[in-house]
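pipeline: protein-struct stage 2 | run 1193 | CDC20/Fizzy WD40 domain-containing protein
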Amino acid sequence: MAQFGFENDIHSILKLDMPITNAPMARWQRKASSSNTSALNGLSPGKAANVSLSSSKTPSKTPGKNKKQTPSKMGGDRFIPIRNGKQMDVASFLLTKENEQVDTNNTAGASENQKAWSMSLNGYNIEDAKILHLGGKPLNAPEGYQNNLKVLYSQATTPASVKKTRYISSTPDRILDAPDLRNDFYLNLLDWSSRNVLAVALHNSVYLWDATQGDITLLMKLEREEDYICSLSWTKEGSYLAIGTSDCKVQLWDVENQKRLRSMASHTARVGSLSWNDHILSSGSRSGHIHHHDVRMADHHIFTLTGHSQEVCGLKWSPDGRYLASGGNDNLVCVWPRVQEGSASNDSQLIRCWSEHQGAVKALAWCPWQSNILASGGGTSDRHIRIWNVNSGSCISSLDTQSQISSLVFAPNYKELVSAHGYAHNNVAIWKYPSLTKVAELNGHEDRVLNLTLSPDCSTVATIAGDETIRLWKSFEVDPVKKKAKERMVKSTSSVIHQSIR
Protein backbone atom coordinates (compact mmCIF):
# COMPACT_ATOMS: atom_id res chain seq x y z
CA MET A 1 0.00 0.00 0.00
CA ALA A 2 2.90 2.33 0.66
CA GLN A 3 4.00 1.88 -2.97
CA PHE A 4 0.62 3.08 -4.35
CA GLY A 5 0.72 6.05 -2.03
CA PHE A 6 4.14 7.06 -3.34
CA GLU A 7 2.94 6.94 -6.96
CA ASN A 8 -0.10 9.13 -6.16
CA ASP A 9 2.21 11.69 -4.60
CA ILE A 10 4.40 11.75 -7.72
CA HIS A 11 1.36 12.25 -10.02
CA SER A 12 0.05 15.09 -7.90
CA ILE A 13 3.43 16.85 -8.07
CA LEU A 14 3.68 16.49 -11.84
CA LYS A 15 0.11 17.62 -12.47
CA LEU A 16 -0.09 21.01 -14.22
CA ASP A 17 -2.47 23.66 -12.98
CA MET A 18 -2.27 25.77 -16.16
CA PRO A 19 -1.37 25.21 -19.86
CA ILE A 20 2.22 25.73 -21.03
CA THR A 21 2.36 28.85 -23.20
CA ASN A 22 5.58 28.07 -25.09
CA ALA A 23 4.82 24.40 -25.80
CA PRO A 24 4.63 23.07 -29.40
CA MET A 25 1.23 23.28 -31.11
CA ALA A 26 -0.95 20.23 -30.68
CA ARG A 27 -1.47 17.97 -33.67
CA TRP A 28 -5.21 18.75 -34.00
CA GLN A 29 -4.38 22.47 -33.96
CA ARG A 30 -1.70 22.03 -36.66
CA LYS A 31 -4.14 20.14 -38.88
CA ALA A 32 -6.83 22.79 -38.45
CA SER A 33 -4.47 25.68 -39.26
CA SER A 34 -3.00 23.89 -42.29
CA SER A 35 -6.43 23.21 -43.77
CA ASN A 36 -7.41 26.86 -43.36
CA THR A 37 -4.15 28.05 -44.97
CA SER A 38 -4.47 25.73 -47.97
CA ALA A 39 -8.06 26.84 -48.51
CA LEU A 40 -6.95 30.46 -48.65
CA ASN A 41 -3.83 30.05 -50.76
CA GLY A 42 -5.07 27.44 -53.25
CA LEU A 43 -2.37 26.17 -55.60
CA SER A 44 -0.22 29.28 -55.81
CA PRO A 45 3.44 28.28 -55.60
CA GLY A 46 5.51 29.70 -52.79
CA LYS A 47 6.96 29.08 -49.40
CA ALA A 48 3.59 28.86 -47.63
CA ALA A 49 2.37 26.11 -49.93
CA ASN A 50 5.57 24.24 -49.43
CA VAL A 51 5.19 24.30 -45.65
CA SER A 52 1.49 23.45 -45.63
CA LEU A 53 1.81 20.47 -47.95
CA SER A 54 4.77 19.01 -46.17
CA SER A 55 3.32 19.55 -42.72
CA SER A 56 -0.14 18.17 -43.60
CA LYS A 57 1.23 14.67 -44.09
CA THR A 58 0.66 12.41 -41.11
CA PRO A 59 3.63 10.09 -40.52
CA SER A 60 2.78 6.44 -41.01
CA LYS A 61 5.43 5.31 -38.55
CA THR A 62 6.83 6.52 -35.28
CA PRO A 63 7.65 10.22 -35.45
CA GLY A 64 11.35 10.93 -35.71
CA LYS A 65 12.13 7.85 -37.86
CA ASN A 66 12.58 7.88 -41.66
CA LYS A 67 12.36 11.65 -41.49
CA LYS A 68 13.41 13.42 -44.69
CA GLN A 69 16.20 15.82 -43.98
CA THR A 70 16.83 18.94 -46.01
CA PRO A 71 20.41 19.92 -46.81
CA SER A 72 21.82 22.86 -44.96
CA LYS A 73 22.78 25.71 -47.24
CA MET A 74 25.48 27.08 -44.95
CA GLY A 75 27.93 24.27 -44.13
CA GLY A 76 26.85 21.61 -41.64
CA ASP A 77 26.94 17.87 -42.06
CA ARG A 78 26.62 16.12 -45.44
CA PHE A 79 23.20 15.37 -46.92
CA ILE A 80 22.32 11.80 -47.96
CA PRO A 81 19.03 11.87 -49.94
CA ILE A 82 16.37 9.16 -49.58
CA ARG A 83 14.24 8.67 -52.69
CA ASN A 84 11.25 6.46 -53.26
CA GLY A 85 10.40 4.53 -56.42
CA LYS A 86 8.28 7.35 -57.88
CA GLN A 87 11.19 9.76 -57.67
CA MET A 88 13.51 7.29 -59.46
CA ASP A 89 11.00 6.98 -62.32
CA VAL A 90 10.80 10.74 -62.62
CA ALA A 91 14.60 11.01 -62.57
CA SER A 92 14.90 8.44 -65.36
CA PHE A 93 12.36 10.40 -67.40
CA LEU A 94 14.34 13.61 -66.87
CA LEU A 95 17.58 11.96 -68.01
CA THR A 96 15.95 10.87 -71.28
CA LYS A 97 14.52 14.36 -71.87
CA GLU A 98 17.69 16.24 -70.98
CA ASN A 99 18.85 16.71 -74.59
CA GLU A 100 15.54 18.09 -75.89
CA GLN A 101 15.45 21.67 -77.13
CA VAL A 102 13.86 24.19 -74.78
CA ASP A 103 12.00 27.37 -75.74
CA THR A 104 13.98 30.12 -74.04
CA ASN A 105 11.17 32.72 -74.37
CA ASN A 106 8.86 31.18 -71.81
CA THR A 107 11.48 29.64 -69.56
CA ALA A 108 10.72 31.69 -66.44
CA GLY A 109 6.94 31.27 -66.55
CA ALA A 110 7.13 27.61 -67.46
CA SER A 111 9.49 26.84 -64.58
CA GLU A 112 7.08 28.46 -62.05
CA ASN A 113 4.07 26.58 -63.42
CA GLN A 114 6.04 23.34 -63.50
CA LYS A 115 7.05 23.80 -59.87
CA ALA A 116 3.43 24.46 -58.82
CA TRP A 117 2.03 21.42 -60.65
CA SER A 118 4.89 19.30 -59.30
CA MET A 119 4.11 20.32 -55.73
CA SER A 120 0.39 19.58 -56.12
CA LEU A 121 0.71 16.27 -57.98
CA ASN A 122 3.90 14.72 -56.58
CA GLY A 123 4.23 16.41 -53.22
CA TYR A 124 7.76 17.65 -54.05
CA ASN A 125 9.54 19.78 -56.61
CA ILE A 126 10.44 17.77 -59.70
CA GLU A 127 13.77 19.60 -60.00
CA ASP A 128 14.84 18.09 -56.68
CA ALA A 129 14.38 14.57 -58.09
CA LYS A 130 17.30 14.86 -60.52
CA ILE A 131 19.96 12.28 -59.82
CA LEU A 132 22.79 13.88 -61.78
CA HIS A 133 23.19 17.19 -63.53
CA LEU A 134 26.26 18.01 -65.60
CA GLY A 135 26.98 21.68 -65.69
CA GLY A 136 29.84 21.71 -68.22
CA LYS A 137 33.60 21.60 -67.67
CA PRO A 138 35.03 22.11 -64.19
CA LEU A 139 36.15 25.62 -63.40
CA ASN A 140 39.80 26.54 -63.15
CA ALA A 141 41.17 27.38 -59.75
CA PRO A 142 41.16 31.11 -58.88
CA GLU A 143 44.30 33.07 -59.61
CA GLY A 144 46.82 32.66 -56.83
CA TYR A 145 45.07 29.57 -55.42
CA GLN A 146 47.49 27.11 -53.81
CA ASN A 147 46.87 23.71 -52.29
CA ASN A 148 49.81 21.50 -51.48
CA LEU A 149 47.65 18.46 -50.81
CA LYS A 150 45.53 18.15 -53.94
CA VAL A 151 44.24 19.99 -57.00
CA LEU A 152 40.51 20.61 -56.71
CA TYR A 153 39.91 22.14 -60.14
CA SER A 154 41.90 21.15 -63.20
CA GLN A 155 41.33 20.54 -66.91
CA ALA A 156 44.87 19.45 -67.73
CA THR A 157 45.97 15.81 -67.54
CA THR A 158 47.89 14.96 -64.40
CA PRO A 159 51.03 12.77 -64.54
CA ALA A 160 49.13 9.89 -62.89
CA SER A 161 46.56 9.87 -65.69
CA VAL A 162 49.12 9.70 -68.50
CA LYS A 163 49.41 6.25 -70.09
CA LYS A 164 52.76 4.81 -69.10
CA THR A 165 52.78 1.50 -70.99
CA ARG A 166 53.30 1.40 -74.75
CA TYR A 167 51.03 -0.41 -77.18
CA ILE A 168 52.58 -3.41 -78.97
CA SER A 169 50.57 -4.42 -82.01
CA SER A 170 49.90 -8.14 -82.38
CA THR A 171 49.82 -7.81 -86.19
CA PRO A 172 52.81 -7.01 -88.43
CA ASP A 173 53.21 -3.54 -89.89
CA ARG A 174 54.09 -5.02 -93.32
CA ILE A 175 54.32 -8.48 -94.93
CA LEU A 176 56.70 -9.21 -97.83
CA ASP A 177 56.78 -12.33 -99.99
CA ALA A 178 59.93 -14.48 -99.90
CA PRO A 179 59.45 -17.17 -102.57
CA ASP A 180 62.00 -19.99 -102.96
CA LEU A 181 63.31 -19.41 -99.44
CA ARG A 182 65.57 -22.22 -98.25
CA ASN A 183 64.04 -23.55 -95.01
CA ASP A 184 67.32 -24.45 -93.26
CA PHE A 185 67.77 -23.77 -89.55
CA TYR A 186 71.58 -23.36 -89.79
CA LEU A 187 71.60 -20.55 -92.41
CA ASN A 188 71.52 -16.77 -91.87
CA LEU A 189 69.48 -15.33 -94.73
CA LEU A 190 68.46 -11.85 -93.52
CA ASP A 191 70.30 -8.64 -92.56
CA TRP A 192 69.33 -4.94 -92.26
CA SER A 193 71.90 -2.27 -93.11
CA SER A 194 72.54 1.07 -91.40
CA ARG A 195 71.27 2.72 -94.62
CA ASN A 196 67.82 1.14 -94.12
CA VAL A 197 68.21 -1.54 -96.80
CA LEU A 198 67.07 -5.09 -96.07
CA ALA A 199 69.04 -7.90 -97.76
CA VAL A 200 67.30 -11.25 -98.28
CA ALA A 201 68.73 -14.48 -99.70
CA LEU A 202 66.19 -16.51 -101.71
CA HIS A 203 67.75 -19.79 -102.89
CA ASN A 204 70.62 -18.66 -105.20
CA SER A 205 69.67 -14.95 -105.43
CA VAL A 206 70.07 -11.91 -103.18
CA TYR A 207 67.37 -9.23 -103.18
CA LEU A 208 67.54 -5.75 -101.64
CA TRP A 209 64.46 -3.96 -100.29
CA ASP A 210 64.83 -0.24 -99.66
CA ALA A 211 62.71 0.33 -96.56
CA THR A 212 62.66 4.10 -97.15
CA GLN A 213 61.56 4.10 -100.81
CA GLY A 214 60.00 0.63 -101.01
CA ASP A 215 62.07 -0.36 -104.07
CA ILE A 216 63.17 -3.97 -104.64
CA THR A 217 66.44 -4.74 -106.44
CA LEU A 218 68.00 -8.04 -107.55
CA LEU A 219 71.63 -7.65 -106.50
CA MET A 220 73.11 -10.96 -107.71
CA LYS A 221 72.39 -14.56 -108.70
CA LEU A 222 74.73 -17.55 -108.56
CA GLU A 223 75.68 -19.08 -111.90
CA ARG A 224 74.89 -22.69 -111.03
CA GLU A 225 71.28 -23.51 -110.15
CA GLU A 226 72.27 -26.15 -107.57
CA ASP A 227 74.27 -23.61 -105.52
CA TYR A 228 72.54 -21.46 -102.89
CA ILE A 229 73.17 -18.51 -100.59
CA CYS A 230 74.02 -19.48 -96.98
CA SER A 231 74.68 -16.20 -95.15
CA LEU A 232 74.55 -12.39 -95.43
CA SER A 233 76.25 -9.59 -93.49
CA TRP A 234 76.40 -5.81 -94.03
CA THR A 235 79.39 -3.65 -93.16
CA LYS A 236 78.90 -1.07 -90.42
CA GLU A 237 78.60 1.76 -92.97
CA GLY A 238 76.00 -0.19 -94.98
CA SER A 239 77.69 0.23 -98.36
CA TYR A 240 79.15 -3.29 -98.78
CA LEU A 241 77.53 -6.71 -98.40
CA ALA A 242 79.32 -10.00 -97.70
CA ILE A 243 77.66 -13.15 -99.08
CA GLY A 244 78.53 -16.72 -98.04
CA THR A 245 77.68 -19.47 -100.54
CA SER A 246 77.30 -23.22 -100.63
CA ASP A 247 80.35 -23.56 -102.95
CA CYS A 248 82.66 -22.59 -100.03
CA LYS A 249 83.23 -18.97 -101.14
CA VAL A 250 82.70 -15.54 -99.62
CA GLN A 251 81.73 -12.79 -102.07
CA LEU A 252 82.05 -9.06 -101.39
CA TRP A 253 79.64 -6.70 -103.21
CA ASP A 254 79.50 -2.94 -103.71
CA VAL A 255 75.77 -2.39 -103.32
CA GLU A 256 75.60 1.18 -104.64
CA ASN A 257 77.23 0.22 -107.95
CA GLN A 258 75.80 -3.35 -107.90
CA LYS A 259 79.27 -4.72 -108.56
CA ARG A 260 81.12 -7.71 -107.15
CA LEU A 261 84.45 -6.57 -105.72
CA ARG A 262 86.00 -9.96 -105.00
CA SER A 263 85.35 -13.65 -104.34
CA MET A 264 87.36 -15.12 -101.47
CA ALA A 265 87.96 -18.88 -101.33
CA SER A 266 89.47 -20.49 -98.22
CA HIS A 267 86.84 -22.83 -96.72
CA THR A 268 86.28 -26.48 -97.56
CA ALA A 269 82.49 -26.46 -96.83
CA ARG A 270 79.52 -24.08 -97.08
CA VAL A 271 79.79 -20.73 -95.30
CA GLY A 272 76.73 -20.45 -93.02
CA SER A 273 77.68 -17.46 -90.83
CA LEU A 274 79.39 -14.08 -91.31
CA SER A 275 80.28 -11.09 -89.11
CA TRP A 276 82.20 -7.83 -89.68
CA ASN A 277 84.67 -6.03 -87.39
CA ASP A 278 85.90 -2.97 -89.30
CA HIS A 279 87.99 -4.32 -92.21
CA ILE A 280 88.07 -7.86 -90.77
CA LEU A 281 85.39 -10.25 -92.04
CA SER A 282 84.94 -13.47 -90.04
CA SER A 283 83.24 -16.47 -91.65
CA GLY A 284 82.03 -19.75 -90.11
CA SER A 285 81.91 -22.96 -92.08
CA ARG A 286 80.27 -26.37 -91.95
CA SER A 287 83.74 -27.79 -91.32
CA GLY A 288 83.76 -26.15 -87.88
CA HIS A 289 86.47 -23.64 -88.80
CA ILE A 290 86.27 -19.87 -88.46
CA HIS A 291 88.35 -17.81 -90.88
CA HIS A 292 89.35 -14.15 -90.52
CA HIS A 293 89.65 -12.22 -93.80
CA ASP A 294 91.40 -8.86 -94.15
CA VAL A 295 89.51 -7.46 -97.15
CA ARG A 296 92.19 -4.81 -97.75
CA MET A 297 94.84 -7.42 -98.62
CA ALA A 298 95.21 -9.62 -101.67
CA ASP A 299 96.07 -12.56 -99.40
CA HIS A 300 92.88 -12.10 -97.40
CA HIS A 301 92.93 -15.19 -95.16
CA ILE A 302 94.95 -14.15 -92.08
CA PHE A 303 93.70 -16.39 -89.25
CA THR A 304 91.84 -19.63 -88.48
CA LEU A 305 89.93 -20.54 -85.30
CA THR A 306 89.39 -24.25 -84.67
CA GLY A 307 87.34 -24.49 -81.48
CA HIS A 308 84.25 -26.20 -82.97
CA SER A 309 83.91 -29.80 -84.10
CA GLN A 310 80.71 -29.25 -86.14
CA GLU A 311 79.13 -26.52 -88.28
CA VAL A 312 79.51 -22.94 -87.05
CA CYS A 313 75.97 -21.55 -87.44
CA GLY A 314 76.23 -18.48 -85.20
CA LEU A 315 78.86 -15.71 -85.40
CA LYS A 316 78.77 -12.21 -83.83
CA TRP A 317 81.41 -9.57 -83.09
CA SER A 318 80.76 -7.44 -80.01
CA PRO A 319 79.87 -3.75 -80.69
CA ASP A 320 83.23 -2.57 -79.31
CA GLY A 321 85.13 -5.08 -81.47
CA ARG A 322 86.88 -6.77 -78.52
CA TYR A 323 85.27 -10.22 -78.68
CA LEU A 324 83.94 -12.64 -81.28
CA ALA A 325 81.20 -15.04 -80.15
CA SER A 326 80.61 -18.26 -82.05
CA GLY A 327 77.96 -20.96 -81.71
CA GLY A 328 77.97 -24.38 -83.31
CA ASN A 329 76.03 -27.54 -83.94
CA ASP A 330 78.26 -29.12 -81.29
CA ASN A 331 76.23 -27.19 -78.63
CA LEU A 332 79.21 -24.98 -77.71
CA VAL A 333 79.39 -21.22 -77.20
CA CYS A 334 82.91 -19.83 -77.70
CA VAL A 335 84.33 -16.34 -77.16
CA TRP A 336 87.47 -15.29 -79.06
CA PRO A 337 89.66 -12.18 -78.68
CA ARG A 338 90.35 -9.44 -81.20
CA VAL A 339 92.45 -10.50 -84.17
CA GLN A 340 96.19 -10.05 -83.62
CA GLU A 341 97.92 -9.62 -86.97
CA GLY A 342 100.94 -11.82 -87.58
CA SER A 343 100.14 -14.34 -84.80
CA ALA A 344 99.99 -18.06 -85.50
CA SER A 345 96.78 -20.11 -85.50
CA ASN A 346 96.26 -22.09 -82.29
CA ASP A 347 93.49 -23.07 -79.90
CA SER A 348 95.01 -21.21 -76.94
CA GLN A 349 93.38 -18.01 -78.23
CA LEU A 350 89.99 -19.20 -76.85
CA ILE A 351 88.81 -16.93 -73.97
CA ARG A 352 85.58 -18.70 -72.97
CA CYS A 353 83.88 -21.95 -73.94
CA TRP A 354 80.51 -22.87 -72.46
CA SER A 355 78.88 -26.27 -72.93
CA GLU A 356 75.66 -25.80 -70.92
CA HIS A 357 73.41 -25.82 -74.00
CA GLN A 358 71.93 -29.19 -74.99
CA GLY A 359 71.18 -28.17 -78.60
CA ALA A 360 72.73 -26.34 -81.54
CA VAL A 361 73.60 -22.71 -80.74
CA LYS A 362 72.74 -20.46 -83.68
CA ALA A 363 71.17 -17.52 -81.79
CA LEU A 364 73.77 -15.06 -80.44
CA ALA A 365 73.39 -11.40 -79.42
CA TRP A 366 75.68 -8.90 -77.69
CA CYS A 367 74.11 -6.35 -75.34
CA PRO A 368 74.64 -2.83 -76.83
CA TRP A 369 74.65 -1.07 -73.44
CA GLN A 370 76.69 -3.73 -71.55
CA SER A 371 79.68 -4.75 -73.64
CA ASN A 372 80.52 -7.82 -71.53
CA ILE A 373 77.04 -9.40 -71.73
CA LEU A 374 76.28 -12.11 -74.31
CA ALA A 375 72.93 -13.85 -74.91
CA SER A 376 72.71 -17.29 -76.53
CA GLY A 377 69.82 -19.55 -77.50
CA GLY A 378 69.67 -23.32 -77.96
CA GLY A 379 67.92 -25.48 -80.54
CA THR A 380 65.10 -27.99 -80.21
CA SER A 381 66.90 -30.18 -77.65
CA ASP A 382 67.70 -27.21 -75.40
CA ARG A 383 65.19 -24.34 -75.87
CA HIS A 384 66.99 -22.15 -73.28
CA ILE A 385 68.05 -18.51 -73.41
CA ARG A 386 71.24 -18.05 -71.40
CA ILE A 387 72.84 -14.74 -70.42
CA TRP A 388 76.64 -14.84 -69.98
CA ASN A 389 79.14 -12.50 -68.34
CA VAL A 390 82.25 -12.73 -70.51
CA ASN A 391 84.53 -11.14 -67.91
CA SER A 392 83.68 -13.58 -65.10
CA GLY A 393 82.64 -16.52 -67.29
CA SER A 394 79.45 -17.08 -65.28
CA CYS A 395 75.92 -17.70 -66.51
CA ILE A 396 73.87 -14.78 -65.12
CA SER A 397 70.44 -16.20 -65.93
CA SER A 398 68.74 -18.99 -67.83
CA LEU A 399 65.19 -19.25 -69.18
CA ASP A 400 63.35 -22.21 -70.68
CA THR A 401 61.26 -20.86 -73.60
CA GLN A 402 59.64 -24.25 -74.39
CA SER A 403 60.51 -23.70 -78.07
CA GLN A 404 63.46 -23.93 -80.48
CA ILE A 405 65.44 -20.65 -80.58
CA SER A 406 66.73 -19.62 -84.00
CA SER A 407 67.73 -15.98 -83.48
CA LEU A 408 68.25 -13.33 -80.78
CA VAL A 409 68.65 -9.54 -80.82
CA PHE A 410 68.72 -6.82 -78.14
CA ALA A 411 66.29 -3.89 -78.60
CA PRO A 412 67.97 -0.86 -76.95
CA ASN A 413 64.96 1.51 -77.12
CA TYR A 414 63.27 -0.29 -74.23
CA LYS A 415 66.18 -2.49 -73.04
CA GLU A 416 64.52 -5.72 -74.16
CA LEU A 417 65.59 -9.01 -75.74
CA VAL A 418 63.79 -10.40 -78.81
CA SER A 419 63.84 -14.10 -79.66
CA ALA A 420 62.72 -15.97 -82.79
CA HIS A 421 61.32 -19.48 -82.36
CA GLY A 422 60.77 -22.58 -84.40
CA TYR A 423 59.12 -25.76 -83.15
CA ALA A 424 56.74 -25.71 -81.40
CA HIS A 425 55.59 -22.06 -81.15
CA ASN A 426 56.79 -20.61 -84.50
CA ASN A 427 56.57 -17.08 -83.12
CA VAL A 428 58.56 -14.09 -81.85
CA ALA A 429 58.82 -13.25 -78.13
CA ILE A 430 59.86 -9.99 -76.44
CA TRP A 431 61.53 -10.26 -73.02
CA LYS A 432 62.36 -7.54 -70.50
CA TYR A 433 66.07 -7.44 -69.70
CA PRO A 434 67.54 -8.45 -67.31
CA SER A 435 64.52 -10.00 -65.57
CA LEU A 436 63.57 -11.99 -68.72
CA THR A 437 59.87 -11.53 -67.99
CA LYS A 438 57.75 -11.84 -71.12
CA VAL A 439 56.50 -8.51 -72.50
CA ALA A 440 54.65 -9.71 -75.63
CA GLU A 441 54.31 -12.49 -78.20
CA LEU A 442 54.18 -11.77 -81.94
CA ASN A 443 52.23 -14.51 -83.69
CA GLY A 444 51.47 -14.76 -87.38
CA HIS A 445 54.07 -16.96 -89.06
CA GLU A 446 52.76 -20.37 -90.13
CA ASP A 447 56.16 -22.07 -90.06
CA ARG A 448 59.34 -21.80 -87.99
CA VAL A 449 60.98 -18.38 -87.79
CA LEU A 450 64.53 -18.71 -89.15
CA ASN A 451 66.08 -15.26 -88.63
CA LEU A 452 65.32 -11.82 -87.25
CA THR A 453 67.10 -8.48 -87.57
CA LEU A 454 66.60 -4.96 -86.19
CA SER A 455 66.07 -1.76 -88.20
CA PRO A 456 68.69 1.05 -88.01
CA ASP A 457 66.48 3.17 -85.72
CA CYS A 458 65.83 0.06 -83.56
CA SER A 459 62.03 0.57 -83.80
CA THR A 460 61.19 -2.38 -86.08
CA VAL A 461 62.19 -6.02 -86.14
CA ALA A 462 62.10 -8.05 -89.39
CA THR A 463 61.51 -11.81 -89.29
CA ILE A 464 61.78 -14.40 -92.04
CA ALA A 465 60.17 -17.84 -91.74
CA GLY A 466 59.65 -21.12 -93.51
CA ASP A 467 56.21 -19.93 -94.68
CA GLU A 468 58.11 -17.81 -97.28
CA THR A 469 57.13 -14.46 -95.78
CA ILE A 470 59.03 -11.56 -94.23
CA ARG A 471 57.10 -9.72 -91.52
CA LEU A 472 57.98 -6.31 -90.10
CA TRP A 473 56.89 -5.72 -86.50
CA LYS A 474 56.91 -2.07 -85.34
CA SER A 475 57.16 -2.92 -81.65
CA PHE A 476 59.85 -0.55 -80.34
CA GLU A 477 58.83 2.95 -81.44
CA VAL A 478 60.16 5.64 -79.09
CA ASP A 479 57.86 8.19 -77.48
CA PRO A 480 57.86 11.31 -79.76
CA VAL A 481 58.79 13.63 -76.88
CA LYS A 482 61.79 11.51 -75.89
CA LYS A 483 62.75 11.09 -79.56
CA LYS A 484 62.87 14.86 -80.14
CA ALA A 485 64.89 15.40 -76.97
CA LYS A 486 67.36 12.74 -78.08
CA GLU A 487 67.65 14.25 -81.57
CA ARG A 488 68.31 17.69 -80.08
CA MET A 489 71.02 16.27 -77.85
CA VAL A 490 72.68 14.46 -80.76
CA LYS A 491 72.47 17.61 -82.92
CA SER A 492 74.05 19.75 -80.19
CA THR A 493 76.94 17.33 -79.66
CA SER A 494 77.57 17.04 -83.41
CA SER A 495 77.63 20.82 -83.79
CA VAL A 496 80.19 21.09 -80.98
CA ILE A 497 82.38 18.49 -82.68
CA HIS A 498 82.02 20.26 -86.02
CA GLN A 499 83.06 23.59 -84.52
CA SER A 500 86.11 22.05 -82.87
CA ILE A 501 87.17 20.50 -86.18
CA ARG A 502 86.87 23.81 -88.03
